[in-house]
Amino acid sequence: MTLAYLCFGIFWRLRSEKELLANFRFQFIYAEMAESNVATDTQQQSMQLYEKNIHPLNVKPCNKKGMYVLYWVQASPRVKFNVALELACQKANEHQVPVLACYVMHTGKLDNFPPETERRCAFMLDGLRDLEKQLKKERNIDLVVLYGECEILIAKLAENCCELIVDAGYMRYQNKWYDEVKNKIECKFTKVETNVVVPVELVSQKEEFAAHTIRRKIWKYAKQYLIEPECIMVIANNKPLISDNLPIIDLSQSDDIILAKLNVDMTVKKVANIHGGHSEAVKLLENFVSKKLPDYDKLRNIPGLDGQSGLSPYINFGHISTVEIILQVNKSTANKSVKDAFVEQLLVRRELSMNFVHYNSENYDSLKCLPKWATDTLILQAVAKRDYIYTSEQLEKGETHDHYWNACQLELVYEGRMHGYMRMYWGKKVLEWTANVNIAYNWLMQYEI
């Protein structure tokens, strides 16, 4: 009898411990789920500020069988100050899947766009290597870089994703890609404006013709957007699986090996002392804020004194956000008038150009985009007597009678840059020294400053 009671007691205790353990596990899982739900709710609230940045491109549902959220990196290849990345992370947590980031080096011909060059691609590859490193280190997100037809490859990766998110560009070829991709995929597709401070259509519903017409409209919203987005960590940490048959670029390889796979103009050489990426941009920004910003208003328009930031290519390639730059400038001890002068150029003038491209999507790169007064001026100029006519080859080599113009041109050819104050002078002289406006315009369009 005593033995029976003893056995029963042991059995009951073991049963109780199992129930206790099971109950503990249940409570742990429930708490983990509750914590995840709270985190997701908090993340949704943090993204509410950016509601106007987010644009659905189709009405298709999420793919519940998807293995990842696909973040199509395009206009903003960076980790910091990237609303598209934060949205991708938030959506991944909602679906309880990882994020897969993808960049495609397009090898097809782009509409009315010059061929890619070694200089552009090398700078881009620097940025992608930096992005790959920071995504893995700071977010535990994998980046896959592909080469080929962009819209086809993105659609292929989207077959296995819950939803697709892209950081928005404004160029015509980018909008064409979005249209082609949305017609190929069966999941939700969202575009996020993160390459401007204020969403373009929130600023204005029409084309603005000058800084003074758009300035007030930008500042109506700018201050609420001049903050750093909340960093959203992805909960799922499993590695996304992708097909081995995709044309993948190994970023650990040299530029020469990678560029051999691409349709690249190798005659425009990379600049040896200029490297792309967010890390390089931050170094330049810190140097500018500490050493150049205090005298920016005095030195910025003097070409020989290097008083500008040098950040233009990093902004152009999306390696650094204008929000990050403005916040760092505003933190400095420089005079307010100096900071205001810099922000005017970076914010108002840049977002005016975004407005121009957005509302002239079919004609921004042709003479059809010009207002009547400009067209009338060009007609008058067409019949004006020209003291000098130069060939395209002479202009390219900087072989004109004007030493200042030649210096601008050769700086552009060999260093890929030109001082901002000299750009209008450079462009106007090409109009003056060529036989007609079409020749001048086509010649100017081959350059990127």
UniProtKB/TrEMBL annotation:
PROSITE patterns: PHR_CRY_ALPHA_BETA (PS51645). The keyword Transport does not apply. Pfam families: DNA_photolyase. This is Deoxyribodipyrimidine photo-lyase. Keywords: Lyase. It comes from the Eukaryota. GO terms for biological process: photoreactive repair. Residues 67-200 form the Photolyase/cryptochrome alpha/beta domain. InterPro entries: Crypto/Photolyase_FAD-like_sf, Crypto/Photolyase_N_sf, DNA_photolyase_N, Photolyase_Class-2, Rossmann-like_a/b/a_fold. The keyword Transmembrane helix does not apply. GO terms for molecular function: deoxyribodipyrimidine photo-lyase activity.
